[in-house]
Specification:
single chain, alpha+beta, Alpha-D-Glucose-1,6-Bisphosphate, Chain A, domain 4, 2 domains, 8-stranded antiparallel β-sheet, 7-stranded antiparallel β-sheet, 5 helices, 15 strands, START-like_dom_sf, SRPBCC domain-containing protein, ASHA1/2-like_C
């Protein structure tokens, strides 16, 4: 535990889509290095790392609510760590670099998230995310406490698709990748299928703007709130399109955290499978 009880505030910025955030940690270099590389320490402020980091070997950091990153270390040379990762295993690959620099009273930690194809809004979101993560790292090293966040209200993700004949946000092609069924007039059921078996949920408030936007809600029995979903399709860099979704409202079901997270994990897995289906169909 550091000797200074004052929190250090992360500082960051954005350059051409690249996000850089820096924070000072009042802890010795070996302890900071262990906090970002060793599974037992990483889970105290970030997520569950599946195993020790090894260059070139696929690993996974899981947050327990259905969200995760699949990562592959490219460099592990204290005090420098580089890895590539994909959110939910399907998003565009990003390069993350960590640099630790000893100071007179601790370590300066700098993280750079490399992606020059981000929109300004996406870069701002990443800046906010890394600022929060480094705040949690700094607080964990300063206090010795678990500083991980509990779980997220929304499930979101994206996949890049090659431009071509597949149009995921057209009525006739939605059924090829999205787990929905019609009542004969419009989509009425959203299906979740995993190791617990299939289950269907009533769709409400369906609205489709062809090739651009889809919105609907999913009725969760016995809950106080119906999570709302937004699916978007937009041009990305080159001859590609970005298909993204956000399904929000999982902390507002009026259930225990354990029960709500269980359902959230099932929906997250279903959305990942849907994005993978869209990518396969577009290939």
């Amino acid at each position: 535990m550091g000797t200074d009880d004052r929190a250090a505030v992360p500082q960051g910025g954005i350059t051409s889509g690249h996000v850089e955030v820096r924070v000072h940690c009042a802890a010795p270099l070996p302890r900071v290095w262990a906090a970002i590389t060793e599974p037992a320490n990483v889970e105290q402020w970030f997520g569950y790392l599946a195993g020790p980091l090894r260059v070139g070997e696929e690993n996974r950091v899981d947050f327990g609510d259905g969200d995760f990153f699949v990562l592959v270390p490219r460099r592990i040379e204290p005090p420098e760590l580089d890895f590539e990762w994909r959110f939910l295993g399907v998003a565009r690959q990003e390069l993350i670099t960590w640099r630790l620099a000893p100071t007179a009273d601790g370590v300066s930690v700098t993280v750079r998230d490399h992606d020059d194809r981000r929109s300004p809004a996406e870069a701002a979101e990443m800046l906010e995310g890394w600022t929060d993560f480094l705040s949690r790292l700094e607080r964990h090293l300063r206090t010795g406490k678990n500083t991980r966040y509990g779980w997220r209200d929304d499930i979101d993700g994206s996949v890049e698709l090659p431009a071509g004949d597949f149009h995921p946000l057209r009525e006739s092609e939605l059924y090829e990748w999205l787990p929905i069924a019609s009542d004969g007039f419009e989509p009425s059921w959203f299906f979740v299928l995993d190791e617990e078996g299939p289950r269907r949920f009533r769709i409400r408030d369906w609205a489709l703007t062809q090739d651009r936007l889809l919105t609907f809600t999913v009725e969760i029995p016995d809950s106080q709130h119906n999570p709302a979903c937004t699916v978007r399709l937009r041009e990305a860099a080159g001859e590609t399109w970005k298909l993204s979704f956000a399904h929000t409202g999982w902390t507002r079901l009026g259930w225990s955290a354990q029960r709500a997270q269980s359902v959230r994990r099932r929906f997250a897995a279903t959305w990942i499978a849907a994005l993978e289906s869209a990518r396969t169909r577009a290939a």
